[in-house]
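Good morning,

Attaching, inline, the backbone tokens for the sequence recovery test we're adding to the shared suite. The designed sequence is right after.
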């Protein structure tokens, strides 16, 4: 289990097996050209409940969840995984 916290204070816990998933890699690659890949990567990495918790954590006062902020959080989460996230 990989546990950590982003710079904004979002605490996460990820089963290491989740990182060994070609669909996760596809979603990350897809996000380079199509931002919907970010949403899919969130679900594959954190699960639906975890994605909702991340979005709620990052939600702005006007109710929006900025794409850039979610992307930055995902980068931090992957960085926290260190070598365990590399196949």
């Amino acid at each position: 289990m990989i546990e950590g916290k982003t710079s904004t204070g979002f605490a996460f816990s990820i089963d290491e097996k989740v990182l060994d998933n070609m669909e996760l890699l596809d979603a990350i690659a897809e996000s380079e050209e199509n931002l919907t890949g970010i949403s899919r990567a969130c679900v594959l990495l954190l699960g639906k409940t975890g994605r909702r918790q991340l979005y709620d954590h990052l939600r702005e006062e006007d109710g929006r969840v900025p794409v850039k902020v979610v992307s930055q959080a995902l980068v931090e989460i992957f960085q926290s995984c260190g070598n365990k996230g590399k196949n």
